[in-house]
Amino acid sequence: MVTSGLHKAFICSLAVLLVASSAQAARPLPYPAASNAKDIPTLDQLSQFPVGIDRTSNPPHYVTTSSCFPSGAQVQTPAGARSIELLRLGDQVLTVQPSGKAVFEEVFMFSHQDAKQVSTFATLTTSSGKTISATPGHYLWAQKPGQQAQLTLAGSVAVGDDLFEIEGSHTVARTVVEASSSTRTGLFNPHTASGSLVVDGVAASVITNFMPASLALHSAVTLPAQALYHILPNSVAEALNTFILAGIASVDSNILRALVTPIKA
């Protein structure tokens, strides 16, 4: 009974976040609009991961936001490089601060941790030869010609844009020379307090198009999870994280139906 109650409480909280997410200012998303009814995901499909609505298309269409990095993506720890799927809560990973300085931070939660999911990734290669893969709806630090550096959807990064690589303890801009898509296995998104993460030597973030591209908002939204992480033993925190991820995977289809019905009018 307690477990059931916790799942219901979690699902209700998720619903609130989904409503808030759909109300944010519209921005282009790198997903194709559904051309007819059969292209629209079923509720069973939608229940496998968080869902958003792209209101920039006419009519609006559904977009999935399972935004992560694949198995085999490399993060840097004090002990050296490590595959992202081997990370655990409490591990330290390299991040980039607003000043551009690279520092280590602890992983306090995972929003995705699925070794079996097969997904399409945006794969970007820079002039230095470094390659990073992320789902199209995941934000990386990038700079388009004539613009300031900002968090940019991986699926929107193009040849000629700059990504930021780590050299020593700071970042350096490198031009993207190839942008393609690839199919890979695994979905992993470890979270740090700053919302920053360095993956495959490139400055990225833990933020996805599930919410606005704001490190401050990420810190605010995840504050309860950060507090629990610091209070609970790692083993308990990991068990709780696994429980929450199970809740995400079993979101009640009635909640999804209630959320998507208004856009059909």
TrEMBL record:
Indicate whether Signal appears among the record's keywords: yes
Record's keyword terms, sorted: Signal
Mind telling me which SMART domains this protein's record contains?
A: HintN (SM00306)
> What is the annotated signal peptide range for this record?
1-25
Enumerate the InterPro entries for this protein: Dev_Signal_Hedgehog-like, Hedgehog_Hint, Hint_dom_N, Hint_dom_sf, Intein_N
| Coiled-coil intervals | none
UniProt domain Hint: residue ranges: 66-167
Which BP terms from GO are recorded?
Answer: intein-mediated protein splicing; protein autoprocessing
Say which domain of life the source belongs to: Eukaryota
* Listed PANTHER family: PROTEIN QUA-1-RELATED
Name listed for the protein in its UniProt record: Hint domain-containing protein
Q: Which organism is it from?
A: Apatococcus lobatus
- Lineage, opening ranks: Eukaryota, Viridiplantae, Chlorophyta, core chlorophytes, Trebouxiophyceae
